[in-house]
């Protein structure tokens, strides 16, 4: 699905919420789980995102598997031969 084919900002789809769809790209070969939040300027290609996951702004995912209840911090790029982020992981935030 290309950003131009998506509805208005902050649209709740059947399974997830996408903010700023005009600036985001979700490829047809990607799967987004139930109750996810995807912020603006996000690119998700050939990836699977688990349920209840938050993808912050300016994130690029390519060939990734993100498990349930994970959070990917703003500005991160995850590429590679099947990058894997486990359940309940907060990736990209300092404590």
Automatic annotation (TrEMBL):
Pfam families: Hexapep_GlmU. InterPro entries: eIF2B_gamma (IPR051960), GlmU/GlgC-like_hexapep (IPR056818), Trimer_LpxA-like_sf (IPR011004). It is found in: Cytoplasm, Cytosol. One of its GO terms (cellular component) is cytosol. Residues 24-75 form the Glucose-1-phosphate adenylyltransferase/Bifunctional protein GlmU-like C-terminal hexapeptide domain. One of its GO terms (biological process) is cytoplasmic translational initiation. Keywords: Cytoplasm, Initiation factor, Protein biosynthesis. Its main location: cytoplasm. GO terms for molecular function: guanyl-nucleotide exchange factor activity; translation initiation factor activity. Belongs to the eIF-2B gamma/epsilon subunits family. Component of the translation initiation factor 2B (eIF2B) complex which is a heterodecamer of two sets of five different subunits: alpha, beta, gamma, delta and epsilon. Subunits alpha, beta and delta comprise a regulatory subcomplex and subunits epsilon and gamma comprise a catalytic subcomplex. Within the complex, the hexameric regulatory complex resides at the center, with the two heterodimeric catalytic subcomplexes bound on opposite sides. This is Glucose-1-phosphate adenylyltransferase/Bifunctional protein GlmU-like C-terminal hexapeptide domain-containing protein.
């Amino acid at each position: 699905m290309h950003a131009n084919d998506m509805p208005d900002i902050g649209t709740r789809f059947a399974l997830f919420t996408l903010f700023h769809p005009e600036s985001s790209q979700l490829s047809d070969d990607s799967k987004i789980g139930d109750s996810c939040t995807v912020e603006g300027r996000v690119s998700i290609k050939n990836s699977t995102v688990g349920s209840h996951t938050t993808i912050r702004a300016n994130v690029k995912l390519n060939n990734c598997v993100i498990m349930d209840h994970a959070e990917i911090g703003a500005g991160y790029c995850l590429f590679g031969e099947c990058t894997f982020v486990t359940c309940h992981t907060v990736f990209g935030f300092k404590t």
